[in-house]
Structures are given as C-alpha cells and as structure tokens.
User: Which sequence fits this backbone?
C-alpha cells in the first residue's frame, strides 16, 4: 500500500510538471475594456479556453513552449502570439471586419478563409444570429442570397437553392454537427422542427448547388451545415425567452400568443472534461390554410366559384369526391375546412445533452443525444399534420487535429400524425343516409349521397324543390356531422388513430444509422494537401405494412461512399487548384462517381476569382424505391426491382394512354355494329407495351464562375454565375397490366391481353421511374456589403434564376418552383451606442407559378410579395441581459410561399436573453 501511495505521489508530481498553466488577459484595443468570451487555442491542437467577464483566461497544457496561441472573437481581428515562457500574456484585440476574418469548413471540408472558398458559400455567425431581426436563425435564412424558403406552417419551413423547389425537399442536405437532420421515413429534414435553438448555434454555412462530390447523394441541390457551440469554448449559463403574438387582424381567429423559451448551460473542468445541456420549448397557433378558391379541373374556369355544384376548394377536404350526373352536371360532396381537421395548436420541444472528453490535447471524444418532439402542418400531396412527431438522435465521435470518425443513429416515432384530406373524406363516409333515412356503411356512402342529391334535384323528393342545387345539397347532407360536435370529434379521433387505407393515420418508426470518417494527410505529404474520407449508411424502415410491404419482410437500404480531395497552391500561393471525387454505391443501383474541379486565383488578399465544375446525383429515397401501397383502383409501386418481383408491372403492361385509345376505338366500332372479336382485332394495334425502366439516380452537371473581394476596405462584393444541366429526373408513370401476356411470341399484341382490358382482368400501377429528358438552368447572384462610418452596415443581394425546359416533355420534369428574381436589402448597426443596436431586412420576390402534388401538379400562382423584418435591441450590462423588440413581417402583409400552403402574416415579439459571459 505504501508503494502504491508513493507511486501515486510521483505520478501526480509528474503530471503537475507536465501540465503547465498559462494565464493572461484580453482587452479591446480601442476601449481598453476586458473582452469576455474571446477564444484562446493552441495552434494545431484541440486545447483551448475562453476569457471570463474580466477578460482573464487560464490555459492548462502539457505542450511545452515554444508554441503559438491563436486569439479570436467575432467582430475582432484574429491575432497570434508566440509563447516562449510562462509569463502572463497581455493581448489587445483590434476591432475588425468579421467578414474578412470568417473561416468556413463546408466548402472543402477543411478550414479556409471565406474569401478564398472554391465555390459559392454563405455564412451566418453567432453575432449575426444575435443581431438578426427575424424571430429565429432559420427564419433569417430568407435574407441569404440564392436561397428559397417555403412556409408550410409556423413550425415548418423548407429551404432550397437553385431551383426544383418543393415543400418536402429530398434534394437538399441539412447537417447539424455533421449529423443528417432528415426524418428517415419522410426522406427530408422537417425544417428546424428538430434542430438547435439559437442559443447553441455558433454558425451556419450554406452551399448553393450540387455538393455531392464531398457530401454524397442527398446534397444534390446544396447543403446547410449548422455548427453548435463547443462547451469548452462557450461556457456558462444562457437563457432566452420570447413572447409575442401573431394572427394580428386575422378575422378567422384574432390575435394569438406565441412563446419560445430556451436554456443552455455548459461547464468545462480543467480543460479535460466538459458538458452542455440545452432545452427549448416553442408554442403558438399555426397559420391558417384557408384558400377556398375553386380548383376543380373538370369545370370550365369561367364556371368555377362558390356557386359551382362541383366546387373543389383548395383548402377544403372531402369535396374532391365528385361525379358528373346525367342531366345535372358535375356535383361534388360537401367537404370540411382544414381548420376543422388540422391541429393548429403547434409546439416544438428540443432537449440536447453532450459530453466532451479530451483524451489528449490532440484527441477529443464526444457523445451527444438529442430528443425532439413537435407538431407541424406540412403541405405534400395532402396537408399532413405531423402530430407529436418524435426524433431521437445519438452521436459518438472521436476527433483529432487532422481526422474524425463519427457514428450516429436517428429514430423517428410517428404514431399520431395523419392526412387531413383523407380524414375529411373518411368522416364524410360515416353519416350518409339512404332515401329511407338509414345510415349506410362507409363503402356505400359516396354512391348513396349522390343518389340522394339526384333524387332531390330531379323532384323525386316531395319535400324538396326540384332543379335547386342548394336544396338538393341540403337534402343529401342531412345527418352531416358538424365540426366541433361530439360525433364529429369521435370519428376524427377514430380515423387519426387508424393507419393505412382504413384510416388517416401515418405510422412510421423508421431509423437511420450512419458512420463517416475523414483524414487529412496534408501534414504527412507536405507536397500536396490531401483529404480522404468515407461513409456507410443504413435505412431501416418500419411502417407495419401501411406504406411498405414490411410486416414480414423488413425494408432496409444500405449505401456507402468514399471520397478524396487534393489541393495545391502555386504561383506564390496566388492560384489554388482543387480536385475532388466521390464514389457512392447504393445496394439497389449502380455506383455513381461525382467529380469536382475548382480553381481560385487571388492576385491580392482582397481579390479572389473562382471557377469550378461540379457534378451531383441523388439516389431515390426509400419510399421512391419500396413504396407498395394498394389504394384500390391503383397500386403505387416503388421502382426497386425487388419491390415489384412477381407483379409483372414493369415487364408485362400497357401504357395508360394506349389503353385509353384502344377502349375508345373498340367502343366506336361496337356502336357501328362491328362484332366483338372483330372490334378487338381492329383496335388492338393501338395498344403499346410499356417500356418503363427501373428507377435509378438523378444526375446533374454544373459550371460556375465567381468573384469575391473587398474594395477600399469598405465595400465587399460577391458575384457568381452558374449553368447546370439535369438528366434522369424521377417521375411516376401509370401502366395497365393484363392477366395475359402482353405480346405474342412474334412480338404482336396478344388478343387475350386486349380482351382482359375489356373484361376488367387488369391492374393499374403507378410506377416510380426516370425520364430520359434533359433540361438546364442558369442563374446569377450578386451580394454587396458596404461598411459605413459609426458601425453602420448596408447589405444588398439579388438572385436571378432561369429554367430552360429544352426539348423535354413537361410531364417528365419536376417543377422548377423558383421565382426569376428575388432581392434582399439590410441596414444594421449593432452598436449605435454601447447599449443600443438595430437591424432591418427587406425581402422581395417575383410572382411565379407553383406546381405541386397538392394540386395534382396543376399550376397555382404564388403572387409577388415583399416583407420587412426589424428589431431594436438594448443591452443591460448590470443584468448581463439583452432586450430585443422585433417583428417578422412588420407590415403584417399576408403572403403565400407555396400554392396550397397557408398565408403567413406578422409575428411580433419581445425577447430577453441572459448570457453569463454577456458576449
């Protein structure tokens, strides 16, 4: 025991000798005041600390002098000091333009100055987030050039870049600390419903355009990378509360309260162990989707409107069920408004904990867990209520100075979500009465309702006046469940709880597993900078047979990718050349190679010209591959070969158009007195065997040139032009499969197959496949920032986007859904006085037509709009608190960003932010 004690004392003394403590103070060079929250790191190591409220820092390290300390703080120039002894260090940081000091990671997966990035990139740092007039950092993204934002609801906004926009964007990758934030079942990220609160965000980087060469298939249209605050660097307690109102001047509801509370606490011990905790809770009333425009495609546009008996209102559900009745015309059922079916009381809960342990000064281990739960309303093929939707993520990472290896899992729990359109139709089938007053079964409800309508309109009901559409509807609607009644709410709850074809519920407990690694060999090779890495991913789906055929056979998809990037600076570091390449393989598709080449020419520090060639690809999502949903008249079938095995849908079917031509010609012959067999033979040649290929990845190629520079140390310019081409777009194609073989042995149409069509011995399929058509797009973005005296700053950016369909069939191309022009103008001053600051942002975009599955891919106009976000803030140093008064959409101009989605008005708020270090 004595020997052990002696050995322990020796070991502790050795550690004390090895681990030295370096101290110092950091001040503002201009005001001479101490700077709190300044970062201090040893160059080339993971070791670092921050200054406290007195500007004092203490850094323990086993690294022996000489070494270099790096001092950074947002709004100040980066400074380095060579340490040769253990004397106290005095540092004065000069105020500087953070735009010149900004470092980005996502463009090349390594740190580099933003001015010298080889591709277009945007960054929002924590200071910009603090000064943003928007209610959250995610809302503030609308003011970033090249970015499009679509609001489906208060808690769900979707972003995209460079065209082919949608409300559920599976072409755009969102990473938070390297973790893909997508829902495995949906196949895309649900905005920031599951993500970070503003208090924990260090920075956000946006890459517009294809980033597949470094980030794989999901980054087809671009990448948003969010980095959270490291607990070693950002210690202390931060608390933020926001209270406000929305729905101001909204006749449908009146003003509604909005609250958003967030807390962050981080603590580091001896620069070896640190942890952080985050909690946030947002609650409010969602925006109402209440566009009741009649969009019935079978009624002439001049006859549509509230008085149209066949009215199909955009945000009323159940009225899609319609018939054309002989002698009466087109009649639709009476539907229910979305507000009676959806859940507009939305919330978002986010809990996060992370443990960081420094195994050595060059090696750090991280474990993080995220739990998120919330409600959002999402516009897809219908309006979906993502109700109490949960996302649980676990991440482990080992990070060195020149490498990392990371593994994470994402599990979703969707047990209460539902389809509002299906819900309206299902409730409509629970109360219909026959002509004797008896309630019929749901399978007979629609036909019975139309029988009642017909009888009343034609005068066969003595108590109802004939030839009166209003009276006929009232008679057919007798017994209808009124929204809010106990019968209505009972049926609503029943169908929400029922998943699959029998109900409106959406069930998914799907999971995603991912591991990736990266190693920087630059220090070893010296001659060239070389970065290598790879990833492996597994999608594990669980829908209990409601979406996939997975009750017995599990649906899982595996994919992997490897990449390498080499770069070299030549001509006295004025020209930097970079070549990247990535190979990805999904188990169901051939491998895809995506190269990227770029050059950055910097004749001086402040002037940088760039050019790049980029490629991208997108694997079909798991639903694209494996959906197998029998909806009665048609089976929706994913395009993976294994998914259709035994169904003969791809191999033995006719095109739907040719079946229509055949039946029309056959009917015409019969009316002329032609015998049945002869009529079949006369018209069977009109049948065309389908030639639908199995699904494969989409492809894109893009060329880009740009310039980023600073003139007279006051005027920042960033301009770029790109041109992209796209092929193999994912589409759906309807085919008809007969029971008999489509072709005879000699290649002619089989008469038995033609007769199967006439005898109803067929099955219709909606197949996922690709179009061979080729299209192109191009665009220009310009960003200008001018630094005025006394801390004032003016920013302007504009983006022009153009789509060229070339010779493509419009039915084979996804919607571009992007305005030609959009513009942002900002004015800010974070320091009018030592305590007062403000910012104002104006956004405008041009009108355009939106095509989406919600309106069956028919166009719906999104009017041009402009909105203003504004805030004024006041800092109270004695309380370490900042008070902000702000507004999203200050003028309360109700705007729509996607056809069928709600109109969004103003949100007015007051926030209080306490920061222990009062950064």
Assistant:
């Amino acid at each position: 025991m004595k020997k052990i004690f002696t050995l322990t004392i020796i070991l502790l003394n050795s550690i004390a000798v090895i681990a030295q403590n370096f101290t110092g103070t950091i001040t503002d060079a201009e005001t001479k005041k101490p700077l709190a929250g300044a970062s201090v790191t040893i160059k080339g190591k993971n070791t670092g600390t921050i200054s406290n409220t007195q500007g004092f820092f203490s850094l323990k390290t086993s690294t022996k002098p000489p070494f270099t300390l790096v001092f950074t703080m947002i709004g100040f120039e980066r400074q380095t000091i060579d340490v040769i002894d253990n004397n106290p260090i005095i540092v004065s940081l000069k105020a500087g333009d953070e735009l010149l000091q900004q470092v980005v990671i996502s463009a090349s997966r390594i740190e580099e100055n933003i001015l010298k990035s080889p591709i277009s990139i945007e960054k929002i740092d924590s200071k910009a987030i603090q000064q943003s007039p928007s209610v959250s950092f995610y809302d503030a993204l609308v003011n970033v050039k090249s970015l499009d934002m679509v609001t489906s609801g208060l808690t769900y906004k979707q972003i995209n870049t460079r065209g082919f926009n949608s409300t559920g964007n599976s072409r755009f990758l969102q990473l938070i600390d390297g973790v893909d934030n997508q829902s495995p079942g949906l196949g895309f990220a649900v905005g920031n419903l599951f993500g970070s609160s503003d208090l924990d965000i260090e920075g956000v980087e946006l890459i517009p355009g294809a980033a597949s060469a470094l980030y794989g298939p999901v980054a087809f249209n671009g990448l948003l990378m969010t980095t959270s605050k490291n607990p070693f660097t950002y210690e202390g307690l931060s608390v933020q509360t926001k209270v406000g109102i929305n729905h101001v001047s909204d006749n449908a509801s009146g003003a509604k309260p909005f609250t958003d509370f967030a807390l962050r606490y981080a603590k580091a011990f001896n620069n070896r162990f640190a942890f952080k905790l985050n909690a946030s809770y947002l609650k409010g009333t969602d925006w109402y989707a209440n566009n009741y425009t009649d969009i019935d495609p079978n009624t002439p546009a001049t006859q549509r409107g509230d008085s149209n008996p066949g009215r199909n209102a955009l945000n009323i559900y159940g009225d899609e069920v319609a018939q054309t009745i002989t002698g009466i015309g087109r009649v639709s059922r009476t539907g229910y408004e979305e507000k009676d079916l959806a859940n507009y009381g939305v919330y978002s809960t986010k809990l996060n904990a992370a443990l960081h342990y420094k195994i050595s000064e060059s090696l750090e281990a991280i474990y993080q867990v995220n739990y998120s739960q919330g409600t959002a309303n999402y516009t897809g093929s219908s309006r979906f209520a993502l109700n109490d939707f949960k996302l649980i993520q676990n991440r482990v990472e080992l990070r060195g100075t020149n490498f990392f290896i990371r593994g994470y899992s994402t599990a979703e729990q969707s047990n209460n979500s539902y389809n509002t359109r299906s819900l309206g139709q299902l409730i409509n089938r629970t109360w219909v009465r026959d002509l004797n007053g008896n309630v019929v079964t749901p399978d007979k409800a629609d036909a019975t309702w139309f029988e009642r309508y017909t009888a009343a309109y034609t005068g066969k009901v003595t108590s109802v006046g004939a030839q009166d559409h209003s009276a006929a509807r009232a008679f057919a609607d007798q017994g209808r469940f009124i929204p809010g009644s106990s019968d209505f709410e009972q049926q609503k709850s029943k169908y929400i709880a029922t998943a699959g074809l029998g109900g409106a519920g959406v069930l998914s407990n799907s999971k995603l597993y991912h591991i990736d690694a990266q190693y920087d060999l630059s220090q070893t090779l010296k001659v060239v900078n070389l970065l290598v890495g790879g990833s492996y991913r597994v999608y594990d789906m669980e829908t209990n047979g409601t979406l996939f055929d997975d009750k017995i056979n599990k649906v899982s998809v595996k994919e992997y990718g490897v990449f390498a990037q080499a770069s070299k600076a030549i001509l006295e570091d004025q020209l930097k050349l970079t070549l990247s390449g990535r190979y990805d393989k999904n188990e169901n598709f051939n491998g895809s190679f995506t190269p990227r080449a770029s050059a950055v020419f910097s004749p001086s520090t402040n002037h940088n010209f760039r050019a790049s060639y980029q490629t991208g690809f997108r694997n079909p999502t798991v639903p694209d591959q494996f959906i197998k949903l029998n909806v009665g008249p048609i089976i929706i079938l994913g395009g993976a070969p294994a998914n259709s095995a035994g169904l003969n849908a791809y191999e033995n079917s006719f095109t739907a158009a040719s079946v229509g031509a055949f039946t029309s010609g056959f009917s015409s012959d019969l009316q002329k007195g032609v015998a049945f067999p002869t009529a079949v033979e006369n018209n069977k040649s009109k049948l065309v065997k389908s030639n639908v290929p199995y699904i494969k990845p989409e492809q894109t190629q893009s060329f880009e040139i740009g310039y980023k520079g600073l003139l007279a140390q006051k005027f920042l310019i960033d301009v770029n032009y790109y041109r992209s081409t796209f092929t193999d777009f994912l589409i759906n194609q309807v085919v008809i499969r007969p029971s008999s073989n489509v072709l005879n042995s000699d290649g002619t149409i089989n008469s038995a197959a033609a007769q199967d069509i006439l005898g109803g011995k067929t099955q219709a399929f909606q197949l996922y496949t690709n179009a061979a058509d080729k299209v192109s797009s191009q665009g220009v973005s310009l960003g200008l920032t001018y630094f005025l005296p006394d801390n004032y700053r003016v920013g302007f950016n504009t983006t022009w986007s153009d789509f060229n369909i070339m010779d493509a069939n419009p039915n084979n191309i996804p919607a571009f859904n992007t305005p030609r022009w959009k513009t942002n103008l900002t004015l800010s001053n974070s320091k009018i006085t030592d305590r007062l600051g403000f910012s104002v942002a104006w956004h405008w975009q041009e009108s355009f037509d939106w095509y989406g599955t919600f309106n069956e891919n028919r166009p719906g106009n999104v009017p041009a709009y402009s909105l203003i976000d504004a805030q004024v803030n006041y800092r109270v140093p004695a309380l370490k608190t900042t008070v902000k008064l702000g507004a999203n959409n200050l003028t309360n101009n109700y705007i729509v960003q996607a056809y069928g989605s709600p109109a969004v008005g103003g949100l007015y708020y007051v926030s209080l932010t306490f920061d222990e270090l009062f950064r």
